[in-house]
Design brief:
The complex is a heterodimer of chains A (252) and B (247). Chain A is built from nine helices and seven strands, in the order βαβαβαβαβαβαααβα. By secondary structure, chain A is an alpha/beta fold. Chain A has a single domain, classed as Rossmann fold (3-Layer(aba) Sandwich), CATH 3.40.50. Chain A is globular, with a radius of gyration of 17 Å. By secondary structure, chain B is α/β, with parallel strands linked by helices. Chain B starts with 6 loop residues before the first strand and ends in a 6-residue tail after the last strand.
Chain lengths: 252, 247
């Protein structure tokens, strides 16, 4: 299997989509999975234990990806412990919803830092490590809000549009380093953090009726796509944003 | 294995990308109908390779632009393997020429094979897929669908049509749990791209960030992925397999 023996770093890797990605990749027997997380220590411990039960090396690092110095420390830690990095998955994300008319400078900056700069800085630092070892894979996560106006979603939508544009620029620039850069874009994925949305129930039934596939996405619908893009089977796919949305974007 | 027990029809599978797709799906466990139009010997060679590796396959002659041929093709798949899970519409031709001098037959031939062909194949495979409420269809498109290029207005129009058709069919067939996607290869090492690689190698490579031409296996693996359950939530997508061409 194609991710066998690899060192893999996933931000936001202990819950939701990130956890599904970690579990999916664990099935391919990587050497070690580092799952970075922000706040929930219990979830981190549980995820690491689950991964170890699958027989792979796993550890967690607490990091707020909006803080550059902590992100640098995270990559330094990876370098010190493993001396290399094969796959970096920039999955951590956070939204704050509200009308664009009242989107504050502070909120904008925070969402850009958390969702867009974290991808840029992570990719920069990952590439430094990867090029010493002859290449690697960098994966971003995006959402339909990058392309479509979703009510209340302007800040995160703009940040995700930045992630998609960066995917192309990073791919072009990192190609000589033999680093593939791609992004997976999903629609609404049914996770715990989505259940925090006060409109969750009505949103789910609305999206279920609109989505051609007739259901909303599960984390596993995204993790399989990420696993494919991480594998060498996808090495000729470069600088792409791959949509896994059950056809929703076709009818919006 | 990923596709154990499933049955795939691959058009234009005697050589090039089609052959690689047939071999890849067979390696994943699928039984394969290896369609060809004229290259029987090469199609039999594709089948022989699959069988030698422990797989199951049959060669089957059909011109995808002819409705009666396509009906024979889908019937043969059902007769031989009694089910149909995956359809890969790969058969395609080029008849390059400047528009001012292009014989109308060259326009018609390309549209008939590259655009009407996939439509006919999908139409004829649908009854079985709709009956079982499952199926995955992948059409081979091309970067030419979205990039302008001198001398192939017929080819690029046919592939642009494929991309549009895929999106509409994805919406139409999603309620039947049939996914429809396209793979859009860049410049791949095949007989079809021989001339462009020979005459404009440096120019073409300059536009490919990964600085080489693609291999048929790299396209085949993307097709296998889209055809598989790993891509269960991907439909109506045109996946670019280009080494970054066009960034």
């Amino acid at each position: 299997m194609s991710n066998q023996g690899r060192i893999i770093l996933i931000t936001g890797g202990t819950r939701g989509i990130g956890k599904a990605i970690a579990l999916r990749l664990a099935a391919e027997k990587p050497e070690h999975l580092v799952v970075a997380y922000c706040m929930n220590h219990d979830a981190a411990r549980a995820t690491v234990a689950e991964l170890q039960d699958l027989g792979v090396g796993a550890s967690s690092i607490p990091v707020d990806v909006s803080r550059s110095e902590l992100v640098r420390e995270m990559f330094l830690d990876v370098r010190n412990r493993f001396g290399r990095l094969d796959v970096f998955i920039s999955n951590a994300a956070r939204a704050s919803f509200g009308p664009v008319a009242s989107l504050s400078r502070r909120s904008w900056q925070r969402m850009m830092d958390l969702n867009a700069h974290s991808f840029l800085q992570g990719a920069q630092l990952a590439a430094e490590l990867m090029q010493e070892n002859g290449g690697g894979k960098i994966i971003g996560l995006s959402s339909l809000g990058s392309t479509f106006a979703i009510p209340g979603y302007a800040g995160l939508g703009a940040a995700k549009a930045a992630v998609e544009a960066l995917t192309r620029y990073l791919a072009a620039e990192f190609a000589p380093l033999k680093i593939n850069v791609n992004t997976v874009s999903a629609g609404f994925v049914d996770t715990e953090s989505m259940k925090l949305n006060p409109e969750y129930e009505s949103l789910v039934s609305y999206l279920r009726s609109r989505t051609p596939a007739g259901r909303i996405a599960r984390p596993e619908d995204v993790s399989g796509v990420v696993a494919f893009l991480c594998s060498d089977d996808a090495r000729w796919i470069h600088g792409q944003v791959l949509l896994a949305d059950g056809g929703l974007s076709l009818v919006l | 294995m990923l596709m154990q027990g499933q049955v795939a029809v691959v058009t234009g599978a005697s050589r090039g990308i089609g052959r690689a797709v047939a071999l890849e799906l067979a390696a994943a466990g699928a039984k394969v109908v290896v369609n060809f139009k004229a290259s029987e010997e090469a199609a039999v060679e594709t089948v022989n390779r699959i069988v030698a590796a422990g797989g199951e396959a049959i060669p089957f002659q059909a011109d995808v632009s002819k409705e009666s041929d396509v009906k024979r093709l889908s019937a043969a798949a059902m007769r031989q393997f009694d089910r149909l899970d995956i359809l890969v519409c790969n058969a395609g031709i080029v008849r390059d020429g400047l528009a001012a001098a292009m014989p109308v037959d060259d326009w018609d031939d390309v549209i008939e094979t590259n655009l009407k062909g996939p439509f006919l194949c999908i139409k004829e495979c649908l009854p079985e897929m709709m009956h079982r409420k499952a199926g995955s269809i992948v059409v081979i498109s091309s970067v030419a669908a979205v990039h302008g290029g001198r001398g192939h207005c017929n080819y690029s129009a046919s592939k642009g049509g494929v991309n549009s058709m895929v999106k509409s069919l994805a919406v139409e067939l999603a309620p039947r749990r049939i996914r429809v996607n396209a793979v859009s290869p860049g410049v791949i090492v095949t007989d079809m791209t021989q001339r462009i690689r020979d005459f404009a190698e440096d120019e073409v490579l300059a536009g490919i960030p990964l600085k080489r031409f693609g291999e048929v296996e790299e396209v085949a693996k993307a097709v296998r992925f889209l055809a598989s359950d790993e891509a269960s939530y991907i439909t109506g997508e045109v996946l670019q397999v280009t080494g970054g061409l066009g960034l």
